[in-house]
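User: Can you predict the 3D structure of Phenylalanine--tRNA ligase beta subunit? Sequence below.
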Amino acid sequence: MKASYDWLETYVKPNLSAQELAERFTAAGLAVDSATPLGDDFIFDFDLTTNRPDALCHFGLAREAAVLTGAKLSFPDIHFAEQPATGRLTTQVEILAPHLCHRYAARLIDGVRVGPSPDWLVRRLTAVGQRSINNIVDVTNFVLLELGHPLHAFDFERLIEQRIVVRCAQPGETLVTLDGMTRELSPDMLVICDAKRPVAVAGIMGGAETEISATTTQVLLESAWFTPASVRRTARKLGLHTEASRRFERGADYENVRRAIDRCAQLIAEVAGGDVVGGPVDIAATPRTPTTVRLRHARIAELTGLDVAPSRAADILTGLGFELVMDDEGETEWIVPSFRVDVSIEEDLVEEVVRHVGYADIPTTLPGWHGAGEYLPGAEQRRAVRQTLLAHGFHEAISLSWCAGNTRALAGLPPGVNIANPLDQNENELRTSLLPGLLTAVARNFRFGTEDVRLFEIGKVFHLVDGKLVETERLALALTGRLLPNDWRGQPTMENFHTLKGVVESLCEAARCPQIVITAPPKDELDEHILTSFLPGQVGILQIAGHAASHPLGQLGRISQALAAHFDFKQPVYVAELELTELITGQRTLTAYRPLPRYPRVERDISALFDAALPFAAIESFIRGLAIPELEQIRLRDVFTGAQIPPGQRAVTLNLWYRAPDRTLTDDEVTERHHQVVEALRAQLAATIR
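Assistant: Sure. Here are the predicted structure tokens for Phenylalanine--tRNA ligase beta subunit:
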């Protein structure tokens, strides 16, 4: 929906710029996609959810703005003179389908002069994308956009017997609607009729035979409340969706029927002349029962963690139109306004309070727990790690906390803690690593004929530090076999080091761990565990960026031939072991969301010769360090070595994405940024551009 900032200011003075008000609206759950300048005005483009039909009008938005800013909300007085009705200028309304039309009101205006609308009215409608038709129709559209209630104007003299009958269509009836199309009606459709024929499809569109024309002098105004399901069903069946049906099918305001028709009569009398004849015919075929909702003030803190003063909560609800009917020691009862069709339970009232206090103020704390046990630090990240591994096809293994000393020694692990009375003399040490137990589980799967294995284990390991037993929690992974089944050539895709590396990176991302670096261990710094447990050239050290190299987060790689022979593995097995506590309880990065790009990206490639010892991560880091704001992504497209490439070098192809957040980049702009990258690579990394 489009709304005018200048129009809103006729009801409320927010004392905020249009952009600031748009941000306030969005933070309160009424999303504003854009605020576009239009002369001295700004046009808001709202993306409203279907449960907020009350916000599909300027006064509804002004009500929200008043609560958001603390400004005063006002509406122009509705007043006009009513002339006595004569026998010729009277009408009757009969509702034959009260289950579909709960309320119907009509007013007569005599002596109107149909013509162009005044400038202020044309300006208001044009600003929000409405075409001016004539002064009568423009007023009905204005009130629709002002109060959110659809209205329709009939040429009173064209109504047979000058009366209205609200009923379901009869078999075979048709209606030529205002768009010139002949519509076939069915008995499940609600129509507005005169004494003999349909003259409008209820809640959707009027008929051409009774439309306002240049010769119209007498107008019958319609304001009604139709059941949303009926309007939605008819609009879908006819393929006819209008501004009126959009509001009726979401739920119009029952109590707005009279206010809207009086406001429309007032404005028509002002812009088209004429006299409002008699009082309105207002028939409530199905009276509305107000909804009452109880709110326990303590419930706000229980659901959100926010400490909101009772007076603040009451001010917010009162400003939004709720009526307080009971206040008793922290418990209140509110009558829900008729325009808030989305509020029916206590949690809805809590949401109303919280969205105006501010979602951003909700603390990031775990909910209270009164049962046994308690949440451990990093519980959220621990669950995320498990869910991520399950999504990657892993199964959880659980092994005992002790292991055999010979297996531990074969893996190059430090001495374990001896158990005084072991259950098994062959397993007489508390484990110092999860890998022996996990590899035993892999071997057991092999013995039962399962060759495609993905296992993980979360558990404690034990060390003696200054004579005291210290427990730490770790995560271990093992994968082997086929990654994908046989392709069309009958050849499977096998698990490999890069598969394992990708899983580990996904885990770090799920745990919201800071930037992770995976590097090959320097040959002069290899400890006994890495030398004996992993195959040279297929091992990596997991490090948190900025942490000491002597304190790695873990290791990953393919197990050594000696370890594979010990477990009688006939195929490559890849493992990783991480310090889980450090992964999930250390410094975390917050997840930041941003809108989808509105403008296209431009891709450019760079193919160059680099030193073979220079890793891609270093190249990427260097390019990022150029701080080119439009450079969005750097991807490795290809690496090539061969006889055509000079010794000690390799050919690398990079794919770069350029995009600006506020415009489409020109070809000259992209060329300039790309040239900057190319020249920097040539000058500082000694790259030879191919």
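The chain is about 30% helix and 30% strand. The first helix runs from residue 5 to 8.
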